[in-house]
Amino acid sequence: MRIRILAVFALAATSLLGFAPSAHAEAKYKIRWYLGHKNLDYFEEAALNFKKEVETKSHGDVSVELVIADRDDLSAGLGAGSNVAAMVEKGEAEMGHSFTDVVGGLDPRLYAFEAPYLFRDYRHMEGVIEGPLGQELLDGFQAHGMQGLSFTYSGGGSGVASVDREIRKPEDLQGLKVGVYGDALNEAWLTGLGAKPVTIKHNLGNILPASRSGELDAAVITWRNFERAALDQGFRYFSMPNSTYLVSVTYINQKFFKSLPAEYRTLISDASRESGRVERALTIELNERAKRAMVGQGVRPVYLNAEGKRGFEKALAPAYASSIEGLIGKDFLRRIRATADGPAQPAVAVDLAGR
User: Fold this and answer.
1) Element (H, E) at 83
2) What span, in angstroms and rounded, lies between the C-alpha atoms of 278 and 268?
3) Nearest to 150 by CA among 97, 191, 84
4) pLDDT confidence of 305, banded at 50, 70, 90?
5) Domain 3-353 is found in CATH 3.40.50.150
6) For the residues of 249-308, what is the DSSP string, one character each?
7) Dihedral (CA of 261, 266, 271, 272) sign
8) CA-to-CA distance for 145 and 138, rounded, in angstroms?
9) Closest Cα partner for 13 from 59, 81, 63, 58?
10) Beta-carbon contacts of residue 170 (< 8 Å; ≥ 6 apart)
11) pTM value?
12) Cα distances (angstroms) measured from residue 146 to each of 20, 85, 97, 106, 256
């Protein structure tokens, strides 16, 4: 896997934060943190906050090097994980950060974020991520020689962007060729509603050309990624908002983590959780900005009332029963639904976090 070191990113850490590691002492512990996605507008501030927090509070004993992976696809070597996760598991890198769909093969429960209409809203997501279920998911990495540290949205609430059709009821998806990440959960729910899933992974630049060539009629996407991919040039509608969620996870090599003094393990865990909260708040804000910008360009958001949402939930029940419950676990899904809303994030208005 080709990797490019973030020399510019490292400089940004100094200029944006007014901080640089101590030059007079070599760090005792070095963390190479491989980031498995390139949409750093979601994650840059959070990553820099983590770097500053760890290096400052460890008094230079721990250094953090930020690295972008050119790709983070499923690895043939692991068979069930990502390129980045494979490196971290083998100890070739100390930390990794990946979309949950990419590392879902390590623990299929991570696919839950893509399960349609499972999460009520961002407040419900916070209740899961910050609660016992979130910790269970993070601890699930231990089976692969890693420890999960925190969740970020790195995308957040997704909808279905379509070229020329509003999606107000399940029947509206019939026959549509829908771009998706390409995992079993995407296949289950879209096929169950009569659509044809088309794997595009996280290659945003391929969506518009594929729509123009007739390969795609729609795509599961966030507002921010809709804007990044310039889909306003060919897609007229954004339907089913926040029906699924694009989520990422940070994890660390377990052997390396256990080799650290207890106070540094606590520091890294706390700093990662805090950086995750920063990123999640920023993602909500970025999606709201992108929505306003795209609506200003003529894109029509399509909202569902309570009855319309119940219609989708009813239509999706067979897919849950036949495939999704078996993939994620029926009891785990039940526990997600039963989880209470989390508190509003301090950096986000309550009404915004609840959308």
Assistant:
1) helix 83-90
2) 15
3) 97
4) very high
5) no
6) EEEEEHHHHHHS-HHHHHHHHHHHHHHHHHHHHHHHHHHHHHHHHHHHTT-EE----HHH
7) positive
8) 12
9) 63
10) 193, 194, 311, 312, 315, 316
11) 0.89
12) 28, 9, 12, 11, 9
d(CA 40, CA 38): 5
- Amino acid present at 144: H
Look at the block and give the residue holding tokens 């676990």. 329
**Residue 71 above 80 pLDDT?**
no
Query: What are the tens digits of pLDDT across the range 168-224?
Result: 999 999 999 999 999 999 999 999 999 999 999 889 999 999 999 999 999 999 999
318 φ, ψ to 5°?
A: -60, -40
Mean pLDDT value across the chain: 88
In 3-state terms the chain splits into helix, strand, coil percentages (rounded to 5) of 50, 20, 30
Percent of the chain topping pLDDT 90: 78
d(CA 288, CA 232): 16
Which residues neighbour 169 within 8 Å (Cβ) at sequence distance 6 or greater? 308, 311, 312
